[in-house]
Design a protein that fits this description.
about 475 residues; single chain; eight-stranded mixed β-sheet; alpha/beta; five-stranded parallel β-sheet
């Protein structure tokens, strides 16, 4: 087949490589000349995706994969077009379709009969049927269901392990007609290979969910579930701190039977997915009070973490505090909705001088994010662990001379390597003095000099490092 992938970001480019590796001819479209030039030079434009560099080194010289900035060079005559352009959320957590609208308009202007169009970007429910199909018809003069088919098939992968996840998880498909579903199923079966799994109710592979709306809801539901579950874990963690219990032991005990699947609490929920997609769900279902409360709880955790630090350290004014980790999670060079931003903000509001260390980012890159760099071996008064980079497992108190207090927001540190330091952890009340009245259900209150920050808003500006 001749396949076009629109959007060569951290998901789109690995998808393009996967399709080309399956024996098809693939052209990627991206507005960034830097990205296009890198791909055509067989160089990965962003680091950290396992096996991508090797695949580019094989696929590009062979002619199986190339990139362009021109839709007219890639779309006409394509058997399938896969759209993976980011959907941005604005400062009020509303979806901003500008990038996707522009990509759809350019696609429609060059669309030819016989093409399958698959949107993989996570969308509010109803978008495929009510927005993309009409826009493609209006811009192309063609008719959906007769001249072309449009389907929704959500990406379900994590950056850094895209190729493994493509094999591991069923590929969900939702179409606007049975013919479109058949076309999409045939397409994805020809470009993906699946691991055998005996834990699924049906064989691993392409699963037709019967409608675009069902596929859209499936993606929002699975990610919203994770946000709500983490919020519940954070609730348990906060109460455990108040009554002198270590929540990690409690969660391990609960999860020892098959009906409990409690996630892990932590300082922040970051990335392009979990903090964002519940807001897209709320856009469809504004009365979903459970989802709204969970998002608010998770958004408040950086402030709560600073409150814990204050309880073991004392006042933070004029103290040097190092935040370990700018990335939203360990091992991934990505700061989309990372907890580092709110953590730094709350610390600064408490009067601290804040520095940030991250092994994946240079000083200049941290500065571009508005963060002041810290280097291993430089002194500080306190430490907050924000990202679970493997490197931090080897840190000791000697790596931060003068440190006397640590808040480990990810439970990544070896506490025995910090013998003269008070190490507090989210959900570990065994190192905290219980708050008066907590045993009766009182909330764990923040000290007076720590602002009740906890913004329940996700900002579009933190999508800046995503290629469109």
């Amino acid at each position: 087949m001749k396949i076009t992938v629109i959007g060569l970001g951290k998901i789109g480019l690995p998808l393009a490589a996967q399709y080309a590796s399956s024996g098809h001819t693939v052209t990627g479209v991206d507005l960034s000349h830097r990205v296009v030039d890198a791909v055509n030079a067989a160089v990965e434009p962003f680091p950290g995706e396992h096996d991508l560099a090797r695949r580019l080194g094989e696929l590009v010289p062979s002619g199986a994969l190339r990139a362009t900035t021109e839709y007219a060079d890639a779309v006409p005559g394509a058997d399938a077009v896969v759209v993976v352009v980011p959907l941005v959320v604005d400062d009020e957590a509303r979806p901003d379709f500008d990038w996707l609208d522009a990509a759809t308009a350019s696609l429609a202007a060059t669309l030819t009969p016989g093409t399958l169009v698959a949107y993989e970007t996570t969308l509010p429910i109803g978008t495929t049927r009510t927005r993309w199909a009409p826009a493609l018809e209006a811009g192309s003069g063609l008719r959906e269901g007769a001249d072309f088919h449009v389907v929704f098939s959500p990406e379900r992968v994590l950056t850094g392990r895209v190729f493994a996840d493509l094999r591991r998880y069923p590929k969900l498909v939702g179409a606007l007609s049975p013919a479109g579903a058949s076309c999409a199923t045939e397409f994805y079966e020809s470009v993906l290979q699946f691991d055998e799994r005996d834990d699924l109710p049906r064989p691993n592979g392409v699963w037709d969910l019967g409608s675009a709306e069902a596929a859209e809801l499936a993606k929002l539901a699975e990610t919203t579930y994770r946000d709500v579950n983490i919020a519940l874990a954070n609730e348990f963690a906060r109460f455990s701190e108040a009554v002198g219990v270590d929540v990690a032991e409690v969660i391990a005990a609960c999860n020892s039977q098959p009906y409990s699947h409690i996630h892990q609490p932590g300082i922040a929920v970051g990335g392009h997915c979990i903090p964002v997609y519940p807001r897209l769900y709320l856009w469809n279902d504004p009365d979903a009070s459970t989802v709204r409360a969970a998002r608010a709880r998770n958004a408040s955790m950086p402030s709560h973490a600073v409150g814990l630090l204050r309880r073991v350290h004392g006042r933070l004014a004029d103290q040097t505090v190092v935040v370990l980790g700018a990335a939203y999670r360990g091992g991934v060079k990505e700061t989309a909705f990372s907890g580092v931003f709110d953590t730094v903000s709350v610390l600064q509001e408490a009067g601290a001088r804040v520095l940030v260390h991250d092994p994946l980012y240079s000083d200049a890159e941290l500065a571009a994010l508005g963060l002041d760099a810290h280097h291993r071996g430089e002194p500080a008064d306190a430490v907050v662990v924000q990202a679970d980079h493997d490197e931090y497992r080897d840190w000791t108190e000697n790596d931060v001379p003068g440190v006397r207090s640590v808040l480990d927001g990810r439970r990544v540190l070896d506490t025995t390597a910090w013998p003269s330091v008070v190490v507090a952890r989210i959900g570990d009340g065994t190192v905290l003095t219980p708050v008066e009245g907590a045993a009766a259900g009182a909330d764990l209150r923040l000290p007076d000099d720590v602002p009740e920050h906890g913004r329940d808003v996700v900002a579009a500006t933190r999508f800046a490092d995503t290629s469109a």
